[in-house]
Amino acid sequence: MMTNASLVRRIGAIVYDSMLLLALMFFATLPFVTMRGGEPVTSGNTVHQLTLLLVAYAFYVGFWSRAGRTLGMQSWDLRLETMDGQKPGLARASLRFFSALLSWLPLGLGFWWQLWDKDNLCWHDRLSGTRLRFYPKD
Fold this sequence. Notes:
Order of helices and strands: EHHHEHHHE
Number of strands: 3
Mean pLDDT: 95
Structural class: mainly alpha
Number of helices: 6
Oligomer: single chain
Shape: elongated
Radius of gyration: 16 Å
């Protein structure tokens, strides 16, 4: 039976995807370090920060809009869907990405909200009109 994903499954997928994203961000940082002659990138480097945001955006929105799930979500048997069960398009996946950033801002309250939501949804699920579904293996 398909159900909306539990908070534990969401966190599992987030941890898995975070490791993959960290590796991508490492590679995206290499040109900045090279341009500085091997010196670390300064914390106020806006271009670097925007590059890392773009890498995260491309990772999540790319996977969500093409496959309906990231590698971490696949490992946890999760799939992102619109409320009518379809794969989200680029616009909806983009809205979800930026809504998820808002969910993180108040100490992750937008994620914790799922514990009180009648449909087991987070803020970014509601704001983007999507849901994360658990598809157990038979």
